[in-house]
Amino acid sequence: MALSPDDIERRIAAKKNNERMKLIATTANNLSILTVFTPIISPIIQNQNLTLSSASLMAGVVFLLFQFFAHGAISLMRSED
Known about the structure:
Blueprint: H1 5-45, H2 54-75
Helix pairs in contact: 1-2
């Protein structure tokens, strides 16, 4: 089955969009991991006790926001067929 020029353009546009969405999702995921591990690693490096502070709770909330954003970006992917 031969593809029309419109089909080819649509597939290329969908591939570009999907790659952008994957990059956005990966960036948000990496930021969320950084957000979670920073309150854990920072006290260890500074030789302090690990305590559950409001900053740690806020880091957890920011982690969830980044994760929801990443999942939302993935849901915006288009079909390449």
